[in-house]
Amino acid sequence: MGSAPPHDALLPLDPKTFAAESRPVIDFLSGYYRDVDKYAVRSAAAEPGRIRTLLPDTPPEHGDPVDVILEDVRRHIVPELTHWQSPNFFAYFPMNASTAGFAGEMLSTGLNVVPFAWAASPAATELEGVVVDWMCKLVGLPDRFLFSGGGGGVLHGSTCEAVVCTLAAARDRALSRLGHEAILRLVVYASDQSHSTFQKGARIIGIPPSNFRVIPTSAASGYGLTADSVQGVVEADVASGLVPLYLCATIGTTGVGAVDPVRQLGEVTRRHGMWLHVDAAYAGSALICPEFQDCIDGAELADSVSMNPHKWFLTNMDCCCLWVASPALLTSALSSNPEYLNNVSEGGADQVIDYKDWQIALSRPFRAMKLWVVLRRYGAAGMRAYIRRHVEMAKWFERTVSADERFEVVTPRRFSLVAFRLRPRHEGDHHAVDAMNRKLLVAINASGRVFMTHFVVDNKFVVRMAVGGAMTQMRHVQDAWELVKEKAKEVGALPTE
Question: How far is it, in rounded angstroms, from Cα 134 to Cα 148?
């Protein structure tokens, strides 16, 4: 361990040494991104408990210099990571970073304000209102989600937080009419393609698991919900004395990128007094491009919409936009006004925003800063070009896979996500082809050269190719396809030449 100045001489935040202490971290990260494509995307050496064996059992008695700490990061931590910012990371959905995102994150972290109420940091609160309105306009949402239109937005950490908050608002709206004992009759609806976060959120706010409806989808509808399928399930519940509460419509599902028809579903929810939430966590970023905005048609019928700039919008983790048409319903479910906070709520709730009442926690980071810096640095045109570049890469991958008769694209590409697999050689060998595709995915990922994930749709095991890394170029997508073919031969799925 290194030596450091005596404890009483150490000033943890010293303007005179701030730059010198910070510069090595910037240099370290610069080198990391320069070399990130040389690392195995997912470490083959990583195993449970390994990091504990590499580090001491107790913290140092005296602090270490930054360069010593960074050397341990280089030796012990980096080799064990899955490198989400690698240009060869095609798993899950992208989790973007950018130089502007880092700049905004540094400003946010460096200023380190806590804007839970307007008076706690007025500029941070007001910048957040500006930024969520900017994003609302960019993605093509109706004016009812703007602050000037009677709605408004907030920056959460994740879709899961947004879901719990909107479920709570929907629950309280219903119980104010029905009485609190009616909670056991409330029903939440989502498709078999919806994210599992909705089931978790429903449990958290007290909906019985038996009252969560998973509505089947099919290839005929592109694995999206249909109004008829939802209407049938809802009517059956109403006939049983249950109360339809909340429906999730997804734009860009996790498995295959499916899009639910917002307008048709909105008409169903209006008829039954349900809350309609639109989850555009991944594909919401693509909505800034006019060619994708038909996906949000009918949003004026929604009660809330969410999307994650930290996925595909060059904004470092964490950042989730949530818009609501009626902020009062959200704050009614989430607000608390203890005496020790009364002195920071100035001007009345009708004049200022206290974002503590728009979320679960009290404390919150200055997320608006990093999203604002990203928007300022790249602009709307730059962001559209960024999204379109990934879509074109995914189109190339889809065309190339489709042209090879040994493979099949299981569902038409949506946005920058391609779901594909080895094609069955004979009718009736479903289990064999699933096993072969599993072996293929394991071999691809074991190479360390690429990382992809899988999904199961219509009982078919499919491989997901999600293009969207900030450093990903066409050559990385082309190399990924060559690797897929190479590993297919190694596992015996394709003949060797």
Answer: 12
pTM, full prediction = 0.93
Give per-residue pLDDT as tens, 236-245: 999 999 999 9
Alpha carbons 117 and 48: distance in angstroms, whole number: 41
Amino acid type, 205: I
CA dist 441 and 451 (Å) reads 9
Total residues belonging to the chain: 497
pLDDT at position 43 is 82
* CATH class, range 15-83: mainly alpha
Lowest mean per-residue pLDDT among 18-27, 45-54, 259-268: 45-54
Average pLDDT over residues 125-131: 97
What is the signed CA dihedral for 331, 334, 340, 344, rounded to 10 degrees? -30
d(CA 219, CA 470): 31
Separate counts of helices (H) and strands (E) for the chain: 15, 11
Closest to 190 (Cα-Cα) out of 239, 234, 134, 125: 234
Contact 323, 112 (CB under 8 A): no
The token pair at 113 is 């304000």
Distance between CA atoms of residues 160 and 320, nearest Å: 9
Contacts of 89 (CB under 8 A, 6+ apart): 41, 82, 83, 451, 469, 472
Retrieve residue 173's tokens.
């709206």
List phi, psi (to 5°) of 446.
Answer: -65, -25
* Cα 367 from Cα 359, distance rounded (Å): 13
412-468: pLDDT as tens digits: 999 999 999 998 776 667 778 899 999 999 999 999 999 999 999 988 999 999 999
Q: Are strands 243-250 and 186-191 parallel, antiparallel or unpaired?
A: parallel
User: Which residues touch 423 (CB under 8 Å, ≥6 apart)?
Assistant: 405, 406, 407, 408, 433
Do residues 343 and 167 touch, judged by C-beta distance below 8 A? no
**Is the dihedral angle over the CA atoms 301, 303, 309, 310 positive or is it negative?**
negative
Domain edges within the chain: 15-83, 113-365, 377-490
Q: pLDDT digits over 166-225, tens only?
A: 999 999 999 999 999 999 999 999 999 999 899 999 999 999 999 999 999 999 999 999
DSSP bridge partners of 409: 420
DSSP string, 181-239: GGGGGEEEEEETTS-THHHHHHHHTT--GGGEEEE---GGGTT---HHHHHHHHHHHHH
Q: Considering the chain, what percentage of its residues have pLDDT values greater than 70?
A: 95
CATH number of 377-490: 3.90.1150.10
- CATH class entry, domain 113-365: alpha beta
Q: Say how far apart CA 227 and CA 217 lie, in whole Å.
A: 11
HEC assignment per residue over 344-407: CCCCCCCCCCCHHHHCCCCCCCCHHHHHHHHHHHHHHHHHHHHHHHHHHHHHHHHHHHHHCCCE
